[in-house]
Amino acid sequence: MKKLKKKKIGNIDDNKPHYIRFAVIKKDINEDGNLNCEWKWIKLKHKSESVQDAKDFLNENIDEILLELVKRQETTNEILVLNTRVLFTFLKAQSGGVVPQIEGIEDIAGNKYTTKKFRVDNVKFSILNRSERIFTLEGSGIISEIELISSNSTVDNKNYKVRVVNDDSIAYNDSWEGFESRTMHEADMTAFDDTNTNKYVLLFQDICYEDSCYLEVYESYATFDYINVKYHEKIGIL
């Protein structure tokens, strides 16, 4: 049986304004499936002149605890993302720049998919035309990776928006900064300033499509070093 940690649940009794009551939850569960707990009265550290003062005191402390929990969760998420990037970098370095696929999709699907790659270098936008459809894929398949790379030498290189549409549905549509703010909350997309390579990175992964898929960059003031695409094209009926 999973052990439960002790928790304290604050409660104010109107008849005892200078005291706060806590439920001390024990580590076991009784026969009815409920947590075993016992109530204790603890005197507040400062003298409360009213029940409202005691309630305010409790609420202030709860806010502080919640804020601390949020901060710790954000830090934990950042560490997980960094660990993933470090692991990816090591894998890439050990395999000569290409991450090996164990039992790739071609093997699993019985050679019904073929893996293709292409790269568009030095993508620029003019004053008269700040949007461009970078590619359109026809048929059925899975996009393994879309990678947009630009130099961080100027903030203009992250001043752009991206739209990814699969089967007439919008999979992604946001600015680089918008994607950056979502990085900690989404598994198949990341945007960050890579200070090791001095690049702005925007990465999308695992986008499935049945009929077509395309990538469009718009409202762009950026110059991309390159845009890299890797996808698995379906070539038969599974």
UniProtKB/TrEMBL annotation:
The protein, known as: Uncharacterized protein
Organism, as annotated: marine sediment metagenome
